[in-house]
Amino acid sequence: MQPRNMSMSGAVDLSAVKAAAEAKQKAERARSQRAAQPGGQQAAAATRLVIDVDEAGFEQEVLQRSAEVPVVIDFWAEWCEPCKQLSPILERLAEAYAGRFVLAKIDVDQNQMLFQQFGVQGIPAVFAVIAGQALPLFQGAAPEPQVRQVLDQLIQAAEERFGIVGAPVDPEQAAAAGEEAAGPPQPPANPTLAAAHAALDGGDLAGAIQAYENVLADEPGNLEASIGLGQARLLKRVQEADPAKVRKAAADKPTDVAAQLAAADLDLVGGHVEDAFGRLVSLVQRTAGEDRDAARVRLLELFEVVGPDDPRVISSRAALSRALF
């Protein structure tokens, strides 16, 4: 999915920290103190760039730290397949940006209060906190180039608005830390799968679809390829759609299968997962024959995009079974 909801104006003020002006002054004092210490900026190399945060440590690890460096929050869960795609990208970029931001990982199953406080609608969801202000960045898995673009905007805004530039880590030490975190060498990735990902990231949807299909021809159970194929097909379907026309057609023709399928695609791309699933389950209930089968197949395809372990998929599968039987 493409990043959504990037907005530097929709900040939610978190009252646990002081105003932005004071945060800026605090950041300037902290940078001066670090520069005066033996080793200067190299002392920042000890900063943890990826941290696990819970409710008890949120104020210190996120709110207080956000006065000195942008903190990017990754809301995730163990059962969330899209999270397993996005989290490694964010962790890799935290190392690559070498201290320009800190990544805070929050397990939503263990931290429901934070999940509710931020108004998270679905996961993965990515927020940032700068000088105590929470900013929604995007929801859903996204390719690395688009995540980089969002991070670059975030870092620029942090510097221009609050004077917060982070604490760049010594490149050699950051590289060593990255190698240590990576662990032992991994076996080479499937080159066809890698080519499929590259095509998807580059916007070559037809090429991505073909490459994912090639992977699945050899490995029918490859979950990563199945999810990628579903994403590529979905993006290709909505690529040239006029959202206003699609919405109007769906509203005017509630029994038109093609119109409802197109609207469900837009629902999902827009992050309205429950709406997309509910629309198609309802379509299955009120159709028969080929129309019902078309709605059922599209719903199963969207299940693959979101991930089989997502609770919204699980509940919608049950609703689909009730509609069919």
Notes on the protein architecture:
With 325 residues, this protein is of the alpha/beta class. It has three domains: 12-182, 3-Layer(aba) Sandwich (Glutaredoxin); 187-240; 242-325, Serine Threonine Protein Phosphatase 5, Tetratricopeptide repeat, CATH 1.25.40. 57% of the residues lie in helices and 9% in strands. The chain is built from 14 helices and six strands. The protein has helices spanning 20-36, 58-64, 81-96, 112-117, 144-162, 171-182, 191-201, 205-218, 223-238, 243-252, 257-269, 273-285, 289-306, 311-324; strands at residues 12-13, 50-52, 71-76, 102-107, 125-130, 133-139. It has a six-stranded mixed β-sheet with strand order 1-6-5-3-4-2, sandwiched between helices. Helix 3 (81-96) links the parallel strand 3 and strand 4. Helix 8 (205-218) packs antiparallel against helix 9 and helix 9 (223-238) crosses helix 11 (257-269). The radius of gyration is 22 Å and the shape is globular. The two termini are 32 Å apart.
